[in-house]
Design the sequence.
C-alpha cells in the first residue's frame, strides 16, 4: 500500500494511527488509477469560462513545474470516500516502519493498528460524482 504521505512523513502517519478513531487510507496504488484524462478535461470545459480558465491555468503551471503529463486526483479521491463509496476497503492491522530498510514502509502486522485501506476504486463513479458535485456538470 504505497502512499506519498507515508514515504515523506512516516512519523505523522504513525501518530495518526494512535488515535482512537477508525482510520481509512487511500494509497497511491489506488489514486494512480484516477487520472484526469482528456475525456474528463473536456467535460471541465463545460464549466463557465472564468472558473475553468483559472483551473486550467493552475493545472498547466502545475504540470509544467512537476513535469506531469496527466494529473492524478489523489486529494479529491480521498475526500470523496468520506461522502460516497467509490473505493472498496480492506481492513488489516498495519505498522509503519520508522528505521533502516523499513523506514516509511507500511507493513501488515498483527501488532499494528487496525486500518481500512483502499484496494480498488470505481474510476467512472468517482469522476461522475466529482464533476457533478464540484462543478455541477
Sequence:
Amino acid at each position: 500500500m504505497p502512499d506519498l504521505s507515508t514515504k515523506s512523513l512516516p512519523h505523522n502517519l504513525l501518530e495518526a494511527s494512535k488515535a482512537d478513531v477508525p482510520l481509512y487510507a487511500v494509497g497511491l496504488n489506488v489514486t494512480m488509477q484516477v487520472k484526469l484524462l482528456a475525456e474528463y478535461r473536456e467535460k471541465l470545459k463545460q464549466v463557465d469560462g472564468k472558473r475553468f480558465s483559472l483551473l486550467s491555468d493552475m493545472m498547466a503551471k502545475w504540470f509544467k513545474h512537476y513535469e506531469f503529463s496527466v494529473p492524478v486526483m489523489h486529494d479529491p479521491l480521498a475526500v470523496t470516500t468520506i461522502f460516497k463509496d467509490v473505493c472498496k476497503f480492506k481492513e488489516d492491522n498495519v505498522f509503519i516502519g520508522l528505521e533502516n530498510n523499513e523506514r516509511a514502509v507500511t507493513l501488515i502486522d498483527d501488532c499494528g493498528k487496525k486500518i481500512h485501506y483502499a484496494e480498488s476504486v470505481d474510476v467512472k463513479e468517482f469522476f461522475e460524482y466529482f464533476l457533478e458535485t464540484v462543478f455541477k456538470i
